[in-house]
Amino acid sequence: MKWLTLNCVAIGSLIAAPLFAASIQLGASVQLTGPVANTGRYYKDAYEFAVEKINAAGGVTIGSERQKISLKILDNQSDVNLSVRQYVQLLSQDKVNFLLGPFASNFVLADSSIAEKARVPMVQGGGASDQIYNRGYAYIFGTLPAASNYFGSTIDAMTKLKPKPQTVALLYADDSFDVSVATGTRELLKKAGLKTVIDERYSTNASDFSVLLSRIKSENVDAVLVAGHETEVLNFIRQAKSLNVSPMLYSFTVGVPSADFRHALGKDANGASGMTAWLPSATLKDQWFGNGEEFARDWATRFGYEPDYHAASGVATVEALVNAIQVAGSTDPQKVRDALAKISFDSLYGHIAFDDKGQISLPQIMIQIQNDTVVPIYAGKDFINKLQYPLAPWSKR
Fold first, then answer.
1. What's the first-to-final CA gap in the chain, in angstroms?
2. What is the pTM of this model?
């Protein structure tokens, strides 16, 4: 079993260093290898970075004492069954105090049951499926907004486009996140008066979209909304180009904010739309990282790649736990759980406050890749920048 232990302490002379009374241990099982390791790394890096920053600033204050944070991360190898076993290990053998989550909703759905049974809080920033929060669990808290509203800003923007899209295709993978996205999107499209002519589920990790793309082309669909993970989205775009399928608009739940996505597709990434709950901004103030822009700069220096919302969401989970521990004045799991339910603070990710189900509420910003750059397009009720629409045929891009 692969694992990584990080024990971060404040930097400075022995005389100037704060006196730590004890160590608060956080534990997580994360996809460090396997099919989704490319996204899993955001969470490993986010947890490490947050712990480093908080310890360097003096650690966690509980009453008159300061405690450092230690971190144990296990590699679940992108295997949900192994992930469940590792969360059992973290609690029963490693005796960690609190849990941080994995990436992906299907992992969070399974792993949060371990936290619930043990009555130990898990704060996670990798799963957004509504199913996670509809079970009545009291010990799961999440920093991603609801999957059912991921396309909310996109659909609102679509109603204001000229010409307005007349037909829509909704495609989604068969995992819990994408099913939740599709469920919510159907209602949003209906309320917006947009006609859905294709509504199809495909298998997770699908590599062949040729049949669906042929339908989109033959039915002359105006807008295509795809709920899926990054590998699926990359396959979709590559095949859309090879088959010369050019709807006026296409949008994806993941991938578009990521530098890896742009690097993988090159110029073919241009025109792709998506959404994000976070963009680096100096207006997002943070106790430990300064602000969102400083965080993005420091992250790139520290890890050698750009952060996206996964990174910011992951850091926010650690900050939420630390805030709750300090508010509770204790490491008692029940007291910290109760404090998590009430916390309200500003961070580099945005305002952190959980609803009665344990989920955060942040608006999604519609984005589009233009000239190899992520451009914010629509937020709230207004366009921020001009959308490239209708998209030109592949032969003219």
1. 48
2. 0.91
The DSSP bridge partners found for residue 376 are 367
Task: Answer whether 3-145+279-352 and 149-276+364-396 agree in fold.
Answer: yes
Helix (H) or strand (E) holding 374: strand 373-379
- Cβ neighbors of 90 (< 8 A, separation 6 or more) are 27, 28, 29, 72, 74, 96, 99
Rounded-to-integer distance, Cα 131 and Cα 242, Å: 36
Of 225, 346, 349, which Cα lies nearest the Cα of 277? Answer: 349
Is the separation of the CB atoms in 271 and 223 below 8 Å?
no
Q: At what angle do helices 37-56 and 309-328 cross, to 10 degrees?
A: 40
| Pairing status of strand 285-286 against strand 223-227 | unpaired
User: In whole angstroms, how far apart are CA 142 and each of 12, 45, 134, 316, 343?
Assistant: 34, 18, 13, 10, 13
Per the CATH hierarchy, to which homologous superfamily does domain 149-276+364-396 belong? Response regulator (3.40.50.2300)
Tens of pLDDT, residue by residue, the chain (397 residues): 444 444 443 333 333 444 555 699 999 999 999 999 999 999 999 999 999 999 999 999 998 899 999 999 999 999 999 999 999 999 999 999 999 999 999 999 999 999 999 999 999 999 999 999 999 999 999 999 999 999 999 999 999 999 999 999 999 999 999 999 999 999 999 999 999 999 999 998 899 999 999 999 999 999 999 999 999 999 999 999 999 999 999 999 999 999 999 999 999 999 999 999 999 999 999 999 999 999 999 999 999 999 999 999 999 999 999 999 999 999 999 999 999 999 999 999 999 999 999 999 999 999 999 999 999 999 989 999 999 999 999 988 8
User: Which of these CATH numbers, 2.30.30.140, 2.40.110.10, 3.40.50.2300, 3.30.565.10, describes 3-145+279-352?
Assistant: 3.40.50.2300
| Cα atoms found within 13 Å of the Cα of residue 376, Cβ hemisphere only | 15
Domain boundaries, the chain: 3-145+279-352, 149-276+364-396
Residue 129 near residue 111, CB atoms below 8 Å: no
d(CA 87, CA 80): 11
- Cβ atoms of residues 237 and 256 within 8 Å: no
